[in-house]
Structures are given as C-alpha cells and as structure tokens.
Amino acid sequence: MNRYVKAVFAAIPAILFLVVIPRLAFDRIPQTYLTTISQSTNLDVASFVTGLNVIGITLAGISAINAWAYKWSIVKPASSSLHMIVSFVLMLFVIGLGNASTLGVTNLSYFSSGSAKLGITLTLTLTLLTVMVGAAVALKIIQKTMKWREDVGFHRLDLQAAPQTSQPLASTNPRPV
Questions:
Q1: Is 10 exposed, middle or buried (0-12, 13-18, 19+ CB in 10 A)?
Q2: pTM above 0.85, yes or no
Q3: How many Å apart are CA 95 and CA 93, to the nearest integer?
Q4: DSSP H helical ranges for the chain
C-alpha cells in the first residue's frame, strides 16, 4: 500500500473518535442541558470538547507521520514515542475532566435543587501511570534500536557474502577437442 494512503488511513480513527463524534454530540445536545450540566457539575462542556478536538487533531497528525515514515527512519520511533506521550496527556485530560493540569485528580460534585450533594473523587495514581508510559517509551526505543541493528547486521552479511571481484564471462582455457 502506498505510504500516503497508509498515512491517511492511520489518521482517520483519531479524527473520527476525538474530533467528529464529540463535536456532533456537542452540537446535538440542547443548550438547556449544557447549562444544567455546567451548573450541576462545574464542568465546562464546550472547553472539554474543544480540548478533545485539539488533542485528536494532534494524535491524527502524529499517527499519519508514523504511518508515512519508513521503517528504518528515526522518525518512526520518535513519532511513536510522541504518540504515547500525547495519549498520556489525553488520558490525564479525560480523567481530569478537561483540566490535564490536575494530574488525574478530579473532584466531581453534583448539586441537586434540594440539599443533597454527591461528591466523588477520582484519583489516578500519577506515579504509576508515568512509570508505565516511561517504560513503554523506553521499550519502544529499545525495540526499534534492536530491529535497526538487526537490519544493519543482515545488510552487512549480504555485503560480505557478495564476491569482491567479478568473474570473467568466458574461460581463458581452451576446450579440448
């Protein structure tokens, strides 16, 4: 398959799930519901969807670059590592309900018209998640480096196996009659 076609197809899922579907869902929800959600949960739905759109476009671009790059290129592991880091930011953004700077700690409170209040604290163990992402990036770099060395090694073996001098096409010894 052509590299450019692969790049386009690699970008489609991120654009579809992080740009198109959230934007369509946001446009279909009536304004009264959006106001109610904002007032009762302190969540700004418009900025949340806009943040998802920005991260989705970024992930789509990185996915396209990753699919477009040659396997032996340094762009491939770099874009793969960058994709993991942006995915980590997306996870923090979603768990933080639109605020990635909370680093995964979210206080979600629901206020009803009466005196009832429901408070939920979602805590993400940031250290564990950061170690997991760091280990995944390091593993990806090690895998790509080993694959590159293996490819270079096979290429060197091919060059060593090739004859150094060319053989004459015709024999210099005459045939016995």
A1: middle
A2: no
A3: 6
A4: 3-15, 21-28, 31-41, 45-68, 75-95, 126-161
